UniProtKB/TrEMBL annotation:
GO terms for cellular component: outer membrane-bounded periplasmic space. InterPro entries: MurNAc-LAA_cat (IPR002508), N-acetylmuramoyl_amidase_3 (IPR050695). Keywords: Hydrolase, Signal. It comes from Nocardiopsis gilva YIM 90087. Residues 163-287 form the MurNAc-LAA domain. This is N-acetylmuramoyl-L-alanine amidase. SUPFAM superfamilies: Zn-dependent exopeptidases (SSF53187). PROSITE patterns: PROKAR_LIPOPROTEIN. The lineage of its organism: Bacteria, Bacillati, Actinomycetota, Actinomycetes, Streptosporangiales. Residues 22-95 are annotated as: Disordered. It holds the Pfam family Amidase_3. One of its GO terms (molecular function) is N-acetylmuramoyl-L-alanine amidase activity. GO terms for biological process: peptidoglycan catabolic process. Residues 1-25 form the signal peptide.
């Protein structure tokens, strides 16, 4: 497990955290939702655009006829895949989410339930809300955004499916949104970039690391959260055990947006205004990455 500079104790904590948090979902694969700068991903309140209904320039005749379609903005030619970690139905579908799926050199559970704050705020609800806000911000800059799930009521998709959605979209950048279930005494956020896994991640290690650094810098500034003090180093971890990274062929990172088990972090994560600011910061970081030469 190329864990860089981490101490053994830290690695153990990270493993625990990954058990609590990293994963995906079941069998019920919704078609990835595609929206664009003109779309409103939150239209309709619950799920946004209909499943599988592209509203970008490539397929959205309806949008064109409405005359509101624009492909302008600094990210006009860019595609970003956002993967909201876990799903609201996972808890009730243990058979589906516990089945083993390809995760790189080995197999891993399809998905996990995710973490929860002491106050009962579920990670899947956080990631879903945060991802919508992030999508809004990126679309406002002209990007085409694809989400890996359509609502917060389903099961899955599995980690390998989540990776495939990014690959199939030929995303310029992909990001999985999570919030950690670390020790209550530990604060802060971290990014996870793919470590080198022979035959899998060689091509994405370098660009993913840059993406992680760009998001880290923007998020630190915009979120007001410190780097995680209970794992990783300076807010950046590298892992070789996450199927969502190992199976990605496009630059991809995980954001562990804070520690749900820490009261100070959880207070922010559960605050709508904070989420809006913090999601904007992630969008800035992604934009910074996408606009590099
Ligand atoms: Zn998670």
């Amino acid at each position: 497990m190329a864990r860089g500079t981490s101490l053994i104790a830290v690695a153990v904590l990270a493993s625990l955290a990954s058990t609590a948090c990293s994963a995906v979902a079941g069998d019920d694969r919704p078609e990835p939702r595609v929206t664009d700068a003109a779309g409103d991903p939150r239209a309709g309140g619950e799920g946004g655009a209909p499943a599988g209904a592209p509203t970008d320039g490539s397929g959205g005749d309806g949008d064109k006829s409405e005359g509101k379609r624009t492909s302008k903005g600094p990210l006009a030619d860019m595609t970003v895949v956002i993967d909201p970690g876990h799903n609201g139905g996972n808890e009730d579908a243990p058979d589906e989410i516990n089945k083993l799926v390809p995760a790189g050199p080995s197999k891993k559970e399809c998905d996990t339930v995710g973490a929860e704050s002491n106050g009962g705020y579920a990670e899947h609800a956080f990631t879903w809300d945060f991802s919508q806000r992030l999508a809004d911000r990126l679309e406002a800059e002209g990007a085409t955004v694809v989400l890996t799930r359509d609502d917060d009521k389903g099961v899955g998709p599995c980690i390998n499916e989540r990776a495939k959605i990014g690959n199939d979209a030929e995303a310029d950048a992909a990001i999985s949104i999570h919030a950690d279930g670390g020790p209550a005494s530990g604060r802060g956020f971290h990014l996870i970039a793919p470590g080198e896994v022979e035959g899998f991640t060689e091509d994405i290690v370098e660009p993913s690391r840059q993406l992680a650094k760009d998001v880290r810098a923007a998020y630190r500034e915009g979120s007001g959260l410190p780097y995680a003090d209970y794992l990783a180093e300076d807010g950046l971890d590298e892992r070789t055990d996450l199927g969502g990274l190992n199976l990605s062929t496009v630059p991809k990172v995980f954001l562990e947006a804070g520690n749900m088990r820490n009261p100070a972090d959880a207070k922010k994560l559960a605050d709508e205004e904070w989420r809006e600011e913090a999601a904007g910061a992630v969008a800035e970081g992604i934009a910074r990455y996408l606009q590099r030469d």
